[in-house]
Amino acid sequence: MRLKGRVALVSAMASGIGQAIAEVFATEGASIIGVDLDERGGQATKAHILGHGGRISFRRADVSSEAEVRETVDAGLKEFGKIDILANVVGIATEAPCHKMELSDWEKIVRVNLTSMFLTSKHVLPGMIERKDGSIVNMASVQALVGLAGYPHYAASKGGIISLTKQLAREYAAHGIRVNCIAPGTIETPLNVQILERAADPKTLRAAWVKMHPLGRLGTPRDVANGALYLASDESSWVTGQCLVIDGGMTSAAPV
Known about the structure:
The chain is of the alpha/beta class and about 260 residues long. It has helices spanning about 15-25, 40-50, 65-80, 105-130, 150-170, 190-200, 200-210, 220-230; strands at about 5-10, 30-35, 55-60, 85-90, 135-140, 175-185, 245. A seven-stranded parallel sheet has the order 3-2-1-4-5-6-7, sandwiched between helices.
């Protein structure tokens, strides 16, 4: 078991990539502190992990609120005694071009997608510094690396995550703490399913998404979770400040 004896705080663990990461980490021996606003989904993930012999607590919390992050970290430390791994997975998106975007929409996306990662890192880092060990895995996106129409706030927040990752990696390396991020391509998550459902022609949109990825399919949450496991484990003990792109070849190909 690659994470035996470790404790991992995983945000957005009620569904999608966060759920897959929580389940993979638990299978590999980690105790999970699960966080999500989705009470029903969070409890379902908790029940699944417990049913397979894992250890997990679940807390309904908004990780863009510093008070709720502080309470979540304190509760996790009280129950498990430490936090070795932080998986910052939370992310939301709305679609609008820059010239039609409301400031409130911009601020919400940046707060949830980027500020939350600052807050969770801020409150988990002191314990990692004390133990001189820790791994933080942040969830970015290929939209931080390439331009796709309609999501300037989402792209900016994800670009900020890559920059934050590199800064934290440099700043805390002397304390034995590694910080990396993942930039997924298009993944079959509930968020993307909702985008398809809102589309005028979901079948055509899905086909266009698949065409963007040379490997010929959309990614799965497990594809990303496997990368997160590598970055969280000792297998990547000499890896920090990196952005692992898991995108089916999307960013390696010219538009077709």
